[in-house]
Structure formats: C-alpha cells, structure tokens
Design brief:
Number of strands: 12
Strand order of the largest sheet: 5-7-9-11-12
Radius of gyration: 20 Å
Largest sheet: 5 strands, mixed
Helix content: under 10%
Oligomer: single chain
Structural class: mainly beta
Distance between the termini: 48 Å
Order of helices and strands: EEEEEEEEEEEE
Length: about 150
Amino acid sequence: MANRFPLIVDSTNNNIKELPSGDNLDMTGSGFANLSAISATAYNETAVTVTSSSNATAISCAAGNSFIHTLSENTTFSFTNAPSSGASFAFTLKLIQDSTARTVTWPTLKWAEGTAPTITTTSGGIDVFVFYHDGTGWFGFTAGQAMA
C-alpha cells in the first residue's frame, strides 16, 4: 500500500498546506524532496490514559508522547516500542496518586545523580515526569512534583 499523507508543499513559497478533506497525495512517486524543517503555528498531542493490570503498566511509544496514569495499585512501568539506534523519542507522564499511597517501580533508566525520585504520596497528588530515549537507553527527569 502506498504511503498517504494529507499535506502538500506549496511550491510557490514552500509552505505546507493541508489537502481538502477526502483528498490524498501519494508520496511514493518521484519528485518529492526531504524536508529539513517543518514549522507549525499550533501543535497538540493527545493525552493517552494508561492503566495498570496485575501491578504492571506498559507505555507504548507508538501510542503518543503524552500519557496520564492514575495509580490504582502498586505498579511496575515498562516502556515499549522505543525507537532503534539512530533515532530519539521523548514523552511526558502525568502520574496521579490514588487515595491509598501506591508505589512505582521504573524500568532501567538514568536519573539525575543516579536516583529515582520519591513520588508524591498525598491523595490526588500529581507528579510530572519527562522520559527521553536516545536510541540506546532511557533518561528520566522530574518536571514537577506535588502539583495538586
């Protein structure tokens, strides 16, 4: 099946324009150059809600770049579908504490000073984390804690 993309480059001024609804552009033919940069005036990401099952929570990199998880049990996170060597990927996780303090176990990754942060234990407490994959391993960053 041919790759389809609902955007087209306006050759007059090199702006990217959306095709009218229902139209598609087959980009498998000749004459398409690689774009070195794309500018957007607005950009939104869908927040994907992930749940745990049997004390495990999987975050699929193929599902998006923004995730929300409300702790309903102690859980061990896994990050799946990460890009291979030569590509990078980042995502944000909003973690909401349950009315009962729950614990989190992270996958193998590097934190500042080699220590994972202690998550907020207050009921309804919100912690925000950013995770970055450089194609070979994961790095974790605390963006904010006890946000509620």
